[in-house]
Automatic annotation (TrEMBL), chain B:
It holds the Pfam family Fer2. The lineage of its organism: Bacteria, Pseudomonadati, Pseudomonadota, Gammaproteobacteria, Pseudomonadales. CDD domains: fer2 (cd00207). This is (2Fe-2S)-binding protein. Residues 6-82 form the 2Fe-2S ferredoxin-type domain. The keyword Iron applies.
């Protein structure tokens, strides 16, 4: 394919036959042979751990007595904060979350104590014998209550954890010059990750004072640092192996069961398993931030957007985890990064409450903001009497425009290409056909922009290790965790491309903190790191192997099976090279994630684009929405492994569809109104729409960064596309997610009373 | 006072088992913890996600919902006991080729359920196979690959 070809191409097995191969772990997974953290059951002497959690969303602790629990036969250890050797706090941004609470509980997920016992049943019984005395405190059930005068501060700095301001121009003056101004109040749900495998794993003592964690996580290295600090162990005494796990989506980015399991394993000298059941995962697990957004957007008589203002309030729950970083990314997206707007003001407040802790979740605040921004564009188009696409086209930024914070960015292509492709989608044909009187159909679209990497100049580095084993295997190690996204497939394909080898020559090692630190498996950064690492390793690897081969090897290059001639004939196998070598090569690279040329990086440098078109049917009797078809156009760099790329876009879209139409963890006064999948519904096969993904692989500026991470792209624009489609079908425009059938029905009746 | 115990006699993957268990021990725990058959996965513990689906007397059933006292004389097959069956081979090949899995945690339940559906009705239509899977949740894929795999299985 020409690198100058910006024509979207449908991603399917026929068009991408040259790259369409099963992922390396597909067969073992399809046969049920893949091992997960929850399968760590066969350890000799394994004990079962359980964590005692608070019965109150907000209370003072006046006493705790674990004596009866300790005396229960079959119990091997009961631990509380008094047993923590190091820092009793953790948190990726601020260490504000206690491993075990001492004086106060701030939400129902707060931990008081943990036990290790011979069986899960004994452990559960032991928890019931722990006596804790509480004095209940007023519950701050939402951000308004937490910010009210006289509200008790949940943390020493008060209840406003963080605030944001992004401003350029003068919005107040600009609104006065607008011919049309629209306002909207939006809200988004407390979405739950619902990885099919809940948080869990095992901590195994090595009998030399050290511990190995075999767990579901997203960063073995960062978890190791936090765990070493909690357990007061030197870093080299803590090893974290992030096993292939049953889903992450951001929800395993923060520590979960590791501190309690580690402490119990140190105490007992035996392996300790803790695996959350779904109820505990619901209560103690991280969620997507519920956000209230108030937006005002205006344009002149021709449709040039002059001013855009947005205020967002995020309920971050009881502890910080990655909340401040989510606020930054939300603020960036709320400034309408796809559009050239001269006057913008975005403000955000990140507020502690006694609710479920909110943190990292695919989209990372961006998709909540994009829902409000794209909805505002639709409303403004309607007010100005313009076609929604026409208004967008008039105001879209060009690839050379600076980002919303004035930063340099690398855009994949002109966003107009995606808009044009979305307008040409076959979904618009028969858009509003009504073949019977019950179902109303409609089509809508939205655009989204997304960046890769941690951004904003945060420390963001990664590396890899490449090694020729004694048996002649090519061992390639990254710190990434395989949680379903297919990084193992990407690494295999990229290794074969850059190192010339065959898949059978390779042993890929992932997720071990004793190996290279590749940075966290988050922020859609792994594919970019993998490419950069292999680019750097490629010439070193070739030179190292030629060196082993000795003189006259200059025209041999690493290939399938070993060093090959320029025509591809195998000359010296990797096994033979391993035997010939006086010293077998061990190559290591470590480098910073690309952040562009700016002296002070802001936002994210590597950018991606998506347009999502949705076709829905609305039941006139019940207000229920069925999503019939989704069509996405993506500009996200080269497709490394087509089934994984497709699966990431389609899976993220259905997850976004869940957020838009179904999913929420409702809370009242700090109480969870549901705790399992009987009441928290996610899309099933019966709900799944037909999907089509067209990709623009080419990237402006050639191949400086040919690959982007696409794990979060598919969720970016799905909510506003669905809301636009519902409006197209019914005439009703909704502002609150998820769309409740009764809300939609009421809105439809108001349209046609 | 001693806990009530049950002598449970049933078949697991074709071999007769006689075990002493608590009458309320869940089939899922018997399989995963007692018999080391970790193919069925725990997802929700209330029969809603399908990750622990096994075949009980040939029908796909959530193993988290059945208790030892309900298993007397019955025949249980987990994915470990299905792997050599030609029908299962077809199912797993279709899942692999269509890219119908990512994290794969839901896959043993899906593969077992599809195997039962095809065994019970070798000429099942794509729609009938899809209906058999409505109780198997997948959070990664958006189900499009699964739908392709099902279409392939209905065709061949």
């Amino acid at each position: 394919m020409s690198t100058n070809d910006f024509t979207p191409r449908q991603l399917n097995a026929d068009n991408f036959a040259d790259r369409w191969q099963p992922r390396p772990d597909a067969r073992s997974k399809a046969r049920g042979e893949q091992r997960y953290p929850t399968d760590e059951l066969a350890w000799p002497g394994l004990l079962h751990g359980r964590i005692l959690r608070s019965p109150f969303p907000h209370a003072q602790i006046t006493g705790i007595n674990v004596d009866a629990a300790r005396e229960l036969p079959g119990v091997h250890a009961v631990v509380t904060a008094a047993d923590i050797p190091g820092d009793n706090h953790y948190g990726i941004v601020f260490r504000d979350q206690p491993v075990f609470c001492t004086d106060r509980v701030r939400y129902l997920g707060d931990a008081l104590a943990a036990v290790a016992a011979d069986t899960p049943e004994i452990a559960a019984h032991a928890l019931s014998l722990i006596e804790v005395q509480y004095t209940e405190l007023p519950v701050l059930g939402d951000p308004a209550a937490a910010l009210a005068d006289g509200a008790p501060p949940l943390h020493p700095g008060g209840n406003l954890l963080d605030s944001s301001l992004l401003e350029h121009g003068d919005v107040e003056a600009a609104f006065k010059a607008c011919a049309f101004v629209v306002e909207g109040r939006y809200s988004t749900p407390r979405q739950m990750h619902v990885f099919m495998e809940t948080e869990g794993g095992v901590a195994v003592p090595d009998n030399q004072g050290g511990l190995t964690f075999r767990v579901g996580c997203q960063s073995g290295h960062r978890d190791r640092e936090q765990l070493a600090s909690i357990l007061d162990l030197p870093l080299d005494k803590v090893r974290v192996i992030g096993l292939a796990t049953g889903g992450g989506f951001g929800g395993k980015d923060e520590l979960t069961m590791q501190p309690a399991a580690g402490l119990l394993a140190l105490r007992t000298g035996r392996p300790v398993r803790i695996h959350f059941d779904r109820r505990e995962s619901t209560i103690a697990g991280i969620k997507r931030h519920p956000v209230e957004l108030v937006a005002r957007t205006g344009c002149d008589a021709q449709g040039n957007i002059l001013a855009h203002q947005l205020h967002a309030v995020l309920d971050t729950g009881a502890y910080a985890t990655l909340g401040p970083a989510v606020l930054t990314n939300l603020t960036d997206h709320a400034a309408a990064p796809l559009y050239r707007i001269p006057n913008v003001k975005v403000t955000g407040q990140l507020v502690y409450t006694n609710n479920s802790v909110a943190g990292a979740f695919r989209g990372f605040g961006g998709n909540q903001a994009t829902f409000a921004v794209e909805s505002q564009l639709d409303k403004l188009a309607a007010a100005a009497g313009l076609h929604p696409a026409g208004l967008r086209k008039r105001n879209l930024r060009t690839p050379d425009d600076a980002g919303v914070e004035g930063q340099t960015q690398q855009q994949p292509c002109d966003p107009r290409l995606l808009l044009d492709a979305a307008l040409a989608s076959p979904l618009w044909e028969n858009a509003t056909e009504t073949d019977n009187r019950r179902w109303l159909t409609g089509v809508g679209m939205a655009l989204g922009a997304q960046g890769n990497g941690l951004g904003n100049g945060l420390p963001d580095s990664g590396g890899a290790r490449l090694h020729l084993s004694a048996a002649g295997r090519i061992e390639l190690a990254f710190g990434f965790i395989e949680y379903g996204q297919g990084v193992i497939a990407a690494v295999e394909h990229l290794a074969c491309e850059y190192l010339g080898c065959a898949p059978d020559d390779l042993d890929i090692r992932l997720g071990d903190s004793s190996g290279p630190d590749s940075g966290p498996t988050s922020a859609s950064r792994s594919s970019v790191i993998a490419v950069e690492a292999l680019r750097r390793l490629q010439p070193q690897w070739r030179a190292a192997l030629q060196d082993i081969a000795g003189p006259h090897a200059d025209d041999l290059a690493p290939g399938r099976g070993g060093l090959c001639t320029p025509s591809g004939d195998l000359r010296i196998s990797y096994a033979k090279l391993a035997k010939m070598a006086a010293q077998r090569p061990v190559l290591k690279v470590h480098f910073d994630f690309p952040t562009g040329p700016d002296a002070t990086p802001r936002g994210r440098y590597l950018q991606l684009l998506i347009a999502s078109v949705a076709r829905v049917a609305v039941d006139r009797l019940t207000g229920r929405v069925r999503v019939l078809q989704l069509h996405h156009i993506t500009a996200g760099g080269k497709v490394i492994h087509p089934p994984s790329y497709l699966g990431q876009i389609e899976g993220a879209a259905v997850m976004g569809m869940g957020m838009a139409l179904l999913e929420d963890v409702p809370m009242q006064d700090g109480q969870f109104l549901l705790d399992n999948l009987d009441a928290y519904l996610i899309p099933t096969l019966a709900d799944a729409p037909e999907q089509r993904v067209d990709v623009i692989e080419a990237i402006l500026g050639g191949d400086s960064y040919p690959v982007r991470g696409i794990g979060e792209l598919g969720i970016e624009a799905i909510s506003p596309a669905l809301i636009a489609a519902i409006e197209n079908a019914t005439g009703a425009r909704l502002h609150s997610l998820p769309v409740r059938p009764t809300t939609l029905l009421t809105a439809m009746q108001e349209q046609h009373p | 006072m001693s806990e009530p115990r049950l002598t449970l006699q049933f078949t697991v993957n074709g071999s007769e088992q006689i075990i002493e268990v608590s009458p309320t021990r869940r089939l899922l725990d018997i399989l995963r913890s007692d018999l080391n058959l970790t193919g069925p996965k725990e997802g929700c513990s209330i029969g809603r996600c399908g990750a622990c689906s096994v075949l009980v007397d040939g029908q796909s059933t959530p193993a988290c919902l059945l208790l030892a006292c309900q298993l007397q004389g019955r025949s249980v097959q987990t994915i470990e006991g299905l792997r050599d069956e030609p029908v299962f081979e077809r199912v797993s090949a279709a899942l692999v080729n269509a890219g119908a899995l990512q994290c794969g945690y839901c896959t043993p339940g899906i593969a077992s359920t599809l195997t039962a559906a095809l065994r019970n009705n070798p000429t099942a239509t794509a729609q009938e196979l899809e209906q058999a899977l409505y109780g198997n949740l997948c959070r990664c894929t958006g189900y499009t690959g699964l739908r392709q795999a099902v279409a392939e299985l209905a065709r061949t």
